[in-house]
Amino acid sequence: MWRLYHFTLCPFSRKVRFALAVKGVTHELVQERPWEKRPAFTALNPAGQTPVLQRDALVLSDSTAILEHIEETLERTPLIGSTAEDRAETRRLSAWFDQKFYAEVNAPLLGERMYKRAVVRGTPDGGIIRAASRMADMHLDYIDFLLERRAWLGGGQFGLADIAAAAHLSVADYLAGLEWDGHEPAKTWYSAIKSRPTFRPLLAERLEGLPPPQHYDKLDF
Q1: Who wins on pLDDT, 36 or 122?
Q2: 118 vs 129: CA distance, rounded Å
Q3: Secondary structure E strands in the chain
Q4: According to the model, what pLDDT value does residue 221 have?
Q5: CATH class for the region spanning 2-73
């Protein structure tokens, strides 16, 4: 059986967990706190980052590499697209959320609202939080733009772009960084994602000492 080293509020871990659930890949979860830099974990991934997927001697790290491997070795429930154009768009949007959304929204929110509060017991910087929330609103505008033109983010079918976006948005939402009012296309799409049995377990988890907003796991929000 696969073993997945993850952290509850790591969006890259959530992306892999959601995708594995959609593809029906059985796996054991191991909670890892990357900032603790456990020698046994850094031996698996010298970068010291979650997620890491392990089965016997095979160790995979980096969420994109992990999901490319799963996609190439498990034919059922394809997530990247059926044409070269679809695959290119799926990869572009997955990178958008993994790189741009993470840098502009989740990294500052995690630093201020999670790491400072739950790890070092510091005082969050309100200016950084407000800036991240403004950037989140711009990303929701872009999601609205896409969904006004297509059924799912990557095109006509649910796929990895939706998985990556939902993973990152769920973390930002947990950290009270999203304002959904005025973003009906994004809100309708995310409500459909939240209703999926493969996504519900992620919404059920809580980080001790850091509860999410009341609307976080509700379908009507």
Answers
A1: 36
A2: 16
A3: 2-6, 27-31, 52-55, 58-61
A4: 87
A5: alpha beta
